[in-house]
Amino acid sequence: MSKSQDVKSRYDEPSPQGMREALGGFATGVAVVTCGTVGKNACAVTINSFTSVSLDPPLILFCLDKSAFHLDRFLVADSFAVNILSDSQMEVSNRLTQEVVDGLEDLETASLVTGCPVFPDAITALDCRPERVIEAGDHHILIGRVVAIRPPLTADPLLFFRGRYAALRR
């Protein structure tokens, strides 16, 4: 029996755990999205469901679980920022996966155009205005129009693969 025939004859019905295991094999970058204003009422959450949608117009998207702690704030925000984390920011990533009211209070942040917090040591930051929200299964897809970009730093990305952080192998 050829290898391709063997693979075709084996499959599992999709389940939440099966989806998690299968999609965990797709390495992703790690980012933190923020909304609110630096120094007051800001919130942040770690994500790895982030991608570009269009270069012209400049659109990106990220997904938040319907049970995410700050979901309601992001759904009504008039702006948000995406911070693409470097491999030196694992602690920030871990901290902002927790349900914390103000996880930014002692972190160094700045802002670009909208006032949303951006991390000076992130690889880059994208300042965005909401374009559209789509409900999809157990998540919301938030599409944003990029209004400002902080030029990228030279650093390796923080990666996530099979349920844990990973590093680039050069």
Summary of the model, kept short:
The protein is α+β, with helices and mostly antiparallel strands. It has helices spanning 3-8, 16-23, 71-76, 90-95, and strands spanning 28-29, 31-37, 40-47, 50-54, 59-65, 80-84, 124-136, 139-150, 159-161, 164-166.
Structure description:
There is one protein chain. By secondary structure, this protein is an alpha+beta fold. The protein has a single domain (28-155), classed as Electron Transport, Fmn-binding Protein, Chain A (Pnp Oxidase, Chain A), CATH 2.30.110.10. The protein contains four helices and ten strands. It has helices at residues 3-8, 16-23, 71-76, 90-95; strands spanning 28-29, 31-37, 40-47, 50-54, 59-65, 80-84, 124-136, 139-150, 159-161, 164-166. The strands form two sheets. A seven-stranded antiparallel β-sheet has the order 3-2-6-7-8-5-4. Strand 7 and strand 8 form a beta hairpin.
